[in-house]
Amino acid sequence: MTAVHLERRALLRRLHGGDVMQTAALIVLALIVLVAVFAPWIAPHDPNGLDLSAALGGASGDHPLGTDESGRDVLSRLIYGARTGLLGPLVVVVVSTALGAAVGVAAAWCGGWVDALLSRAMDLVFALPGLLLAIVLVAVFGPGLTAPTVAMSIAYVPYVGRLVRNVAVQEATRPYVQSYRVQGWSGWTICLRHLVPNIAPLVLAQSAMNFGYALMDLAALSFLGFGVQPPGADWGAMINNGANALLQGAAMPALAPGAAIVVAVVAFGVVGEGVADRVAKREA
Amino acid sequence: MTGTARETLLEIDDLTVRLASGAARPVLDGVALRVARGESVGLVGESGSGKSVTSRAALGLLPAGATATGTVRVAGDDVLTMSAARLRELRRREVAMVFQDPRASINPVRRIGDFVTEGLRAGGTPARAARATAEELLEAVGITDPRRALRRFPHEFSGGMLQRVMIAGALAGGPRLLLADEPTTALDVTTQAEVIAILTRLQAERGTGLLFVTHDLDLAAAVCDRIYVMYAGRIVEEQTAEGLFARPRHPYTAGLLAATPRMGSGEPPRGVPGRPVSLAENPEGCAFAARCRLAAPECAAERPALRLVDGVSVACHRAEEPIHD
Amino acid sequence: MALFLVKRLAGMVATLVATSLAVFGSLYLAPGDPATFLMKGRPVTPETLAAIRAQYHLDDSFAVQYAKWIGNVLTGDFGRSVQFRQDVGGLVASRLPTTLWLVAYAALLILVVGLAVGALAALRRGAADRIVLIGTGMANATPAFVAAIGLISLFSVKLHWFPAFGNGSGFGGRISHLTLPAIALALTFAGLLARVTRSAMLEELAREHVEVARSRGVPGAAVVRRHVLRNSLGPISTVTGTIVAGLLVSTSIVETAFGLSGVGQLLVSSVTVKDFPVVQAVSLLVVFAFVAANLLVDLLQPLIDPRVKGAAR
C-alpha cells in the first residue's frame, strides 16, 4: 500500500519535471487563495442573492458564467465556494499532518510495542476508507462541514504517519544519529534538530498532495449532501444543485465548479510533486 | 596472426561505436578482432575500455541510441546489418553470452527451467525436447538433481550455482561462439575456479569459440590462447598468452602485468599511474601517453596505428624498444 | 505458508472486529434517542416508546447490544431497516446486483484501459508517453461526481447516446444504463492504474535480465510479456487491491449522481434519514470487501514473486 501511496505522490511527475508547470501551478494556487480571501470584494453579486426571474440564464455581461436554477450568479458562488473549498482541506491537512507526524515520530523513536501498537492502529484506520468514515460520522452527528472534516482528518493520519515513521526509522539508523547519541545528546534534541528538518520536506510534499485529495473527498461529501448545507456556496454542493439544471441543458452551474475542483487538485498535485522531486534530487 | 588455420567464427573489422550523447570520442574506435572455431580469445582492459561493448556487439547489442560503423561478422554474416528475424535466430543458435552477474541476469520470478529453455522455446523447440536438453546441460555444468533444479527459482541457488545455470542457458542453443563477459567477477573467489573450469571444459568438449572478457590479465592468460588488450576504445596489443607474459610490447600491457600482485616475486605490485581516459576527452595522440613512462613527444602528437612487430600486433610508436620494469 | 495464512486471517478478523466496534459504537453514541427518531416526531405514549425500545433492544448495555448485534450479523441477520421496514439483509441483497454490475463494469474498464495505457506509455516513450502522463494526471484529479456531470452533459444531454438516470432492465438495458456510471467510476482509478503500470514497467524494462532475454533471441513481444509485464505484477496487483476497495466506496457517489438504486445509494439515503441498521450493515460490507481484497492481494504476492514467502508487507 505504501507503494501505491508513493505512486499517488509520483503522479504527474515527469509531466511537471519542467519548472514551467511548477510555476503555473503555484500561480494558480495563489490565485485561488487570493480569490478565497478577497471573495467579498471580487464577487460581482451576492452569492445567495435569489432572482427567480433570471433562473438558468446563460452567460451574459452581468453574469459571466450565467445563473443557477434559483437565479444566483454562478461566478459569485464559485468565488465564495473557494472559501469552504480551501478551508475544509486546510483543517484536514493541518490536523492530519500534526497528528501523523507526532504518531510517526513516536512510533519510530520509541520502537518496540509503541511502534507495534501505533502501526497497527494506523493500519486499522487505513482499512477504513475515509469517505466511509465520513459518511458514518455524518450519520452520527448530522450533515455539515464538521463531521466530514473530522473524519478526513483522522483518515489522512496514516498517510503522513506511515511516511514519517518509515523515513524516521531510516534516519534514526543513519550513522550521524548514532554518533550524536554516542556523544550524549538527548533524544529530543536530536529529534528536533536533525530528524525534523530531514523529514519536513517530505511531509510538506505529502501534505500538498493530501490537500488536493482532501479537497476532492470533501467536495464529494458536499455533493452527496453531507457537507456544506444549502444555501452555502460550495463547489461540491453547487454540482449537486446544478445536476438538475444539467438535464435542462444548462451545464454551467455544475460544470464550472467541477472544473474548479479539477484545476485545484491538479495544481496541488503538481506543487506537491515539485517538492517531492526537489527532496529526491537533494537526496541523490 | 596465430590460429588462422582454423575457420574464423567471429570477425570484427574497423568497428567504431558512438554514443548518442555528445561524448568527445567514440566508445569503440576502429576495433578489429578475430575468434576462430574452438579458439579461446581473451579481451582485457580496465573498466570503460570498451571490452564489454565489443563483446556485446557480436550479439548485435549496442548501447541505447549508439551508432556503429564497420562490420561484425559471425560465420560470414554481418550482425550489424542483418534482419531482426535473422538476428534472433543468430542469438538463439549461434552466439550466446555468459553475463557477469547471474543474480541480475536471470529473471528472479521465473523458474530455472524457464531460463535455460527460453531461447530454445522461442526457436520452436517442443517443450519436452527443450526440457530434456536443459536437464542434460544442468547435469553437464554440475548441478545435482537437474530435474528438480529446473522447477526451482533463482533465489534458491548460490551465486556460483546460478552462474552454472547461466552457462547451461548459454549452451542450450548449441552456439558456435560463446561470449563470456567477466563471468566470475561477481562470484566468491572459491567458486570462481570451479566456474572457469566448467566453462573451459565445456568449451573444449564442444569445440566452441570463446571470447573471454575480463579485467584480470592472469585469468585471461589461464583461460585463453590469444589475448587482445584494449585501452580507451582501441586494441593496443594482441599476441599469444605466453608471449604477452614473456614480453609485453605495449607499455600499458606491461603496466597491467606489473599491477598484478605476484606470489614469490618479492616485489610489491605497482599500479598504473594516472586514470583512464574518460569519454569526455579525446587526446590527439596515443590515448595512453599521459600515463606512460616511456612517452616521447611524438606519442602525444600522433596516434599510433596497430602494426606487426616481431609477429605481435601492437599500437605503440616505441614498440621495438624494450620495456624495463 | 499455513502460518502466514493463519496470521493474515487473524489480522483480517481483528480489523473487522475493530471496525464493527467502531461503526456500532459511533452510532450507539449518536446524539438523540433513536426511539424518538423512529417515531419521526409523532407524539407517543411512554408505553409505545418503551415497546419500541424493547423491540430494538435499546435499553441493554452497550456490550450486550453489540454482542447481540454481532451474533445476529454472523447468522446473516443485520436487523430491520427503519426506513424501508424490511430486513436489512434482504434489502442489501436486492440492491447488490446493480452495485456489483457497476463495480465489475468499472473494474473491467480500469484493468483494460489502465494496463493498456500504462504499457503504451512505458513501451513507446516520447510523445505518446507525454500525452498519457497529461491524460492520466487529469483523470486522477477528476473526482467521480465531476466526471459524472461531465459525461451526463455531453453524452446524455447533448448527444443522447446514453441514458442519464435509472437502472435499466435486461442485459442490454443494464449495459447502456451502466456505461456512463462505470466510466465516471473508472476514470480516477484507471489513471492511477496506468501510472502504476507505467512506472512498474519502466523499472522492469531497465533491468538486466530483460536485456539478457533479448540477447538470447527471445522476440520483443515475448520479452515484454514474460519478463516486463510478468515482473510488474507485484505493484499492479497491490494497487488493484486498493482500487477494488475504493470502487465500493465511490459507488455511493456515482449511484447518487446517476440515480442508480444500488448499495451505495442505499447507504447515502440511509444516512440522510438515520437508518442506522442499514448504515451499519453497508459499512461493515464495505470494510469487509476492503480487507478481503487486500488479503487476496497479500496471498497472491508469493505466487507473483517467489522470493516473497509469507513475509508480505
TrEMBL record, chain B:
InterPro entries: AAA+_ATPase, ABC_Ni/Peptide_Import, ABC_transporter-like_ATP-bd, ABC_transporter-like_CS, Oligopep_ABC_C, P-loop_NTPase. Residues 10-257 form the ABC transporter domain. Pfam families: ABC_tran (PF00005), oligo_HPY (PF08352). It is a peripheral membrane protein. It is found in: Cell membrane. Keywords: ATP-binding, Cell membrane, Membrane, Nucleotide-binding, Transport. This is ABC transporter ATP-binding protein. It comes from Actinomadura harenae.
From TrEMBL, chain C:
The chain crosses the membrane at residues 9-30, 100-123, 130-155, 175-194, 233-258, 278-297. It comes from the Bacteria. InterPro entries: BPD_transp_1_N, MetI-like, MetI-like_sf. PROSITE patterns: ABC_TM1. Keywords: Cell membrane, Membrane, Transmembrane, Transmembrane helix, Transport. It is a multi-pass membrane protein. GO terms for biological process: transmembrane transport. It holds the Pfam family BPD_transp_1. One of its GO terms (cellular component) is plasma membrane. Belongs to the binding-protein-dependent transport system permease family. PANTHER family: DIPEPTIDE TRANSPORT SYSTEM PERMEASE PROTEIN DPPB-RELATED (PTHR43163). This is ABC transporter permease. It comes from Actinomadura harenae.
